[in-house]
Design the sequence.
């Protein structure tokens, strides 16, 4: 009885936590699309958490049909998570028909459980959600690695752009889904307490990173998988004969790139991107990125930060007796994108 009371107390705290995250986004002006989706997901999650309070009623504890209906609503959370995770790695891709395709099968399963109940239908719904969740998890992790490569090839900094954190979140959600499915018929107050605490930790983590995440406009612009234009141009380059590739893409980038970076000290810009450098060189950002990858075997991020580290080292050598304040201003701020 004491453990059960602690379980309901934990539930109340968890509901309050999710509600506070939701209202903080509601009050936020000029929300991005990602923040609006996060607000929607957290709001629905708050409602779904609140319905667990029905377990306090004796009839719910003894009625398998009601329990399965409640659990069926929980299974809809798989689609909610998928919607948010796909939005982070493929901004703007899930719209209209794709959004309907994402949710329709689960809604049909839910309505079938409610109005044409059978244990077999509920089991099929559970199996579908498990398979769907695993497939989405694999897709999101794969997309996150491609997104990471895209960032490294186009930006000299990763603050609020990186989605590496998403890999850990996806794995954590997948483990929670698998554990929940395996224990679905043997729910205990202890397992409920663990579920509420873990859910709060995961979504607090998601809220922190998602609310600060910067969606790259050029990524949103190019349809499927967010990299279509870059991949298309890269394919065009790869299909060229090796003898023509240098003339087609690299031209005189060898000398101009290094000269521009050093003479104009572009590496001092903490928000430097491959697009800015490409404009300075009067070339295409994809060609420049391809040049760095194929000919120099490096990424834009690594290439620029090499000059930052070199500049910081020179400052240290030139100012051996400099004050700590001067060291901070000149060196730490220069290396901030690297750190």
Sequence:
């Amino acid at each position: 009885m004491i453990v059960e009371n602690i379980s309901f107390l934990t539930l109340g705290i968890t509901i309050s936590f999710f509600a506070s995250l939701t209202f903080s986004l509601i009050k936020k002006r000029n929300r991005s699309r990602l923040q609006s989706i996060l607000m929607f997901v957290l709001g629905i999650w708050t409602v779904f958490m609140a319905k667990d309070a029905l377990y306090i009623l004796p009839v719910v504890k003894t009625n398998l049909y009601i329990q399965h209906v409640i659990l069926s609503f929980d299974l809809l959370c798989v689609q909610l998570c998928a919607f948010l995770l796909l939005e982070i790695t493929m901004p703007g891709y899930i719209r209209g028909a794709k959004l309907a395709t994402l949710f329709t099968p689960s809604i049909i399963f839910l309505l079938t459980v409610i109005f044409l109940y059978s244990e077999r239908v509920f089991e099929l719904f559970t199996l579908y959600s498990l398979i769907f969740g695993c497939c989405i998890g694999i897709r999101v992790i794969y997309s996150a690695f491609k997104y990471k490569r895209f960032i490294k090839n186009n930006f000299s900094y990763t603050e609020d752009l990186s989605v590496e954190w998403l890999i850990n979140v996806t794995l954590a959600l997948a483990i929670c889904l698998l554990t929940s499915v395996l224990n679905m018929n043997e729910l205990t107050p202890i397992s409920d307490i663990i579920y509420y605490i873990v859910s709060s930790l995961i979504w607090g983590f998601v809220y922190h990173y998602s609310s600060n995440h910067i969606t790259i406009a050029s990524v949103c612009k190019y349809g499927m998988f967010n990299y279509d234009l870059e991949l298309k141009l890269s394919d065009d380059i790869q299909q060229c004969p090796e003898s023509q590739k240098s003339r087609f893409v690299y031209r005189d980038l060898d000398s101009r790139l290094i000269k521009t970076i050093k003479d104009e000290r572009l590496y001092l810009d903490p928000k430097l991107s491959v697009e800015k450098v490409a404009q300075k060189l009067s070339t295409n950002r994809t060609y420049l990125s391809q040049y760095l990858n194929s000919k120099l075997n490096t990424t834009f991020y690594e290439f620029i930060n090499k000059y930052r580290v070199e500049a910081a080292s020179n400052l240290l050598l030139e100012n051996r007796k400099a004050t700590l304040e001067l060291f901070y201003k000149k060196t730490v701020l220069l290396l901030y994108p690297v750190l």
